[in-house]
Design brief:
The termini are far apart. The strands form 2 sheets. Strands 1, 2, 3, 4, 5, 6, 7, 10, 11 and 12 form a 10-stranded mixed sheet that branches. The chain has a two-stranded antiparallel ribbon with strand order 8-9. By secondary structure, the chain is α/β, with parallel strands linked by helices. It has 2 domains: 2-217, Spore Coat Polysaccharide Biosynthesis Protein SpsA, Chain A; 226-282, no CATH class. It has helices at 15-23, 44-49, 67-81, 100-110, 150-153, 174-180, 192-202, 226-244, 250-268, 271-282; strands at residues 2-8, 31-37, 56-60, 86-90, 94-96, 114-122, 129-131, 134-137, 142-145, 159-162, 169-173, 206-217. α1 (15-23) links the parallel β1 (2-8) and β2 (31-37).
Length: 284
């Protein structure tokens, strides 16, 4: 069995499309859907509740616990109620195309060394590739998405090993959760996927992208507040690199930190970046 875990927060414009793409898979595979709503204030809940499918289990949080904590909440419920072989983390602003789940499951079953499989992620409007695997640049303290043209790249192979997977759409094996543990709840938003990717690899699992599996990713209304997005990208990024840098590299981390801090303080004028950096440092 595969249990989909979807975290919603003000996704009234995307959630039905997301659910419809999963409903189309139910006849082919045993599926359950756990939706954890982080206290939406729009029509997200009413839209979800209009769906008659018994496969949906909706949990309504009374506050926004952040992405990682809500995902962990969903995983624990899935373990207790369904004990699935696979967990599928899917953003509410994303939707799957036909056969995507089947392709990903086949790849996962045929590769025992692989712990997580991701699809190719595409913008539904522009049809441009948003994610085709990724890497972590430790020098620049950033994560990067590969966006190569599949007609060029995947003519040679359709199953890629990668060092980093985007949390937009992930098929995770049960045994990986058992060995690696849950998501790190220090990450309220962003970088929890990079952290999880690293921890999984340190437990001996490989990460892969199934190129024939396609997921479309729309722009989410829950994260299009620019200041909120910038704040958590900066703060979570600092948490991630500070946590995973080896001890002898920590002086480099702080060198980059203070260089960026003084740049934004004296030159860029981006107060939200300064606040994120100060909040990170004060929380240590």
């Amino acid at each position: 069995m595969t249990v989909f875990i979807i975290i919603t927060f003000n996704n009234q414009n995307q959630i039905q499309t997301c659910l419809d793409s999963i409903f189309s898979l139910i006849k082919k595979k045993p599926i359950k859907i756990i939706i954890i709503d982080n206290h939406s204030s729009d029509q997200t809940l009413s839209i979800i509740e209009k769906n008659p499918h018994p496969e949906i289990l909706l949990i309504k949080n009374q506050q926004n616990f952040g992405f990682a904590k809500a995902v962990n909440q969903g995983i624990k419920i899935a373990q207790r109620k369904f004990n699935p072989d696979y967990f599928f983390l899917l953003n509410p602003d994303a939707f799957l195309v036909k056969d995507t789940l089947e392709i990903m499951l086949e790849k996962a079953k045929n590769k025992p060394e692989v712990g997580i499989v991701a699809p190719k992620i595409i913008d539904p409007k522009t049809r441009k590739i948003l994610f085709l695997g990724g890497k972590i640049n430790w020098l620049k303290m950033k994560t990067f998405h590969f966006k190569k043209n599949p007609s060029i790249y995947f003519s040679f192979q359709n199953f890629l090993s990668t060092l980093y997977l985007s949390g937009c759409a992930l098929l995770i094996k049960k045994k990986l959760i058992e060995k690696t543990g849950l998501l790190n709840e220090r990450f309220f938003l962003y970088y929890e996927d990079a952290d999880f990717s690293l921890r999984a690899q340190r437990k001996g699992f490989q990460l892969s992208v199934a190129s024939e599996a396609v997921c479309y990713h729309q722009e989410s209304s829950s994260s299009n507040n620019n200041d909120v997005k910038i704040y958590y990208l900066v703060k979570s990024g600092l948490i991630f690199f500070h946590q995973h840098y080896l001890s002898w590299l920590k002086p480099y981390f702080w060198l980059v930190f203070y260089f960026r801090y003084f740049y934004h303080y004296y030159f860029s004028g981006k107060k939200i970046v300064i606040k994120a950096m100060e909040d990170f440092k004060n929380a240590l």
